[in-house]
Design brief:
With 209 residues, the protein is mostly helical. The protein is 71% helix and 0% strand. The N terminus is likely disordered.
């Protein structure tokens, strides 16, 4: 006989928190979302968030469902790579991760989900606009628009290579593909080269629903 008053299992509670966190991060961005606000939305005690995730950063990573933490990767590259080799290292990181049989498969699944789900798209946009691009631009001392352009180049190329499977790219070795794209990434990310003037900030379209 089942025990009376048994609460939902840990996996159900964790997923309940993840769903609430995705909604909060998509609507409010990373900075304005707190562990307490997620707990309130999930209708759980705040201590459970510390129990399952430890920190807001880990909750954010789990909510994004990424196989790697982009900021951890960028931090490692920034601290361990000479500046004149950074673009090459960044391009190599993108190519090797997206072509990896495990991490790449998860990234491609995430890309399919993102482009077909308005909430997932909102969260990806919030992650790029409020976390990744500003931190990356500050660390490299380049305009945020330059970082956005570099990421669009890398993401677009890896999607064509690994998700769509364009033969002219898939037939290249990792090293040949890196050699092809690294010079363009370097031009985006070199301070003082190709300065980008800041246009008036556009207003976001209100989300439907």
């Amino acid at each position: 006989m089942a025990k009376a008053g048994r609460r939902p299992g840990p996996s159900q509670t964790r997923e309940q928190i993840i769903r609430a966190a995705r909604e909060q991060f998509a609507e409010r961005g990373y900075t304005r979302t707190t562990l307490r606000s997620v707990a309130a939305a999930a209708q759980v005690h705040p201590g459970l968030l510390h129990h399952y995730f430890g920190t807001k950063q880990q909750l954010y990573r789990d909510a994004l469902d990424l196989p790697v933490d982009p900021w951890e990767v960028l931090t490692r590259l920034l601290t361990g790579t000479p500046r004149d080799q950074f673009a090459d290292a960044l391009a190599r990181q993108f190519v090797s991760t997206w072509r990896d049989p495990i991490a790449g498969a998860r990234l491609r699944a995430m890309a399919r989900r993102t482009y077909g789900d308005a909430d997932a798209t909102s969260m990806a946009r919030a992650h790029l606009e409020t976390v990744l691009i500003p931190r990356f631009a500050s660390a490299l001392d380049v305009p945020e628009a330059n970082v956005a352009a570099a990421l669009s180049h890398l993401i677009g190329l890896t999607l064509l290579d690994t998700l769509i499977g364009v033969d002219q790219l898939t037939s290249l070795s990792d090293e040949d593909l890196v050699a092809l794209i690294a010079p363009a990434i370097s031009r985006y990310l070199t301070p003082g080269r190709q300065p980008v003037s800041r246009a008036p900030h556009r207003q976001h379209r209100p989300s439907s629903g």
